[in-house]
Amino acid sequence: MLCSADGGAFSDQGSAKLVSHFVDSKDSLSRSTAGLLIDSIRRAFGWPIAVSYALRNHFIHDGGQQHEVDFFAGATSIDEFKINAKAWKNIRNRAVAYNVLPDNIRKNANFPPAPEEDLRVLLTACEREMDEALGILLGSACAALATHLSFLTGNDV
Asked: What torsion, rounded to 10 degrees, do the Cα atoms 25, 28, 32, 34 define?
């Protein structure tokens, strides 16, 4: 689907979704993609990807409010970007609903130990990890294409 003959156009599917395609194992793509790749992405990048999507959904779909809980811990500049404990619990629960756990992260990911302390640090870590995951997916797709071309042409590519 992501590397389909129609050039990746998702006319009937919408755009590609990293969580549903590569993290949440219920998607049909996980049944047609190499199990090792799906499992590797989920185990190494699942948590930051899921948290990133949970945050995006919170602000875009929920308008920054969920269960009448303010997202930020305080209303003053001293509190900066600290996430309210109840709001973080809601984000965490939404991320867990994507079938990942907080330990689904690379060992050297430098993910913040207390992500609720600063939204900016959390978003930076999630962005970095999503970029890494997409790099692996793209690299794997290119390597598979090169191998396929070498089989078709009989030459090393």
From this structure: -10
Range of the domain at 57: 18-153
The 3 state secondary structure assigned to 8-27 is CCCCCCCCCCHHHHHHCCCC
How many structural domains is the chain composed of? 1
The structure tokens listed for 130 are 């999503």
Residue 67 in any domain: the answer is yes
Residues 83-139: tens digit of each pLDDT: 999 999 999 999 999 889 999 999 888 899 999 999 999 999 999 999 999 888 888
Residue 9 to residue 96: CA distance in whole angstroms? 29
Give the list of residues 6+ apart from residue 48 with CB closer than 8 angstroms, or none: 105, 109, 111, 125, 126, 129, 130
Could you give the percent of the chain with pLDDT greater than 70?
71
Helix (H, G, I), strand (E, B) or coil at 67: coil
CA dihedral sign, ordered 121, 103, 43, 87? negative
pLDDT at 1: 42
Give the integer Cα–Cα distance in Å for 67 and 86: 9
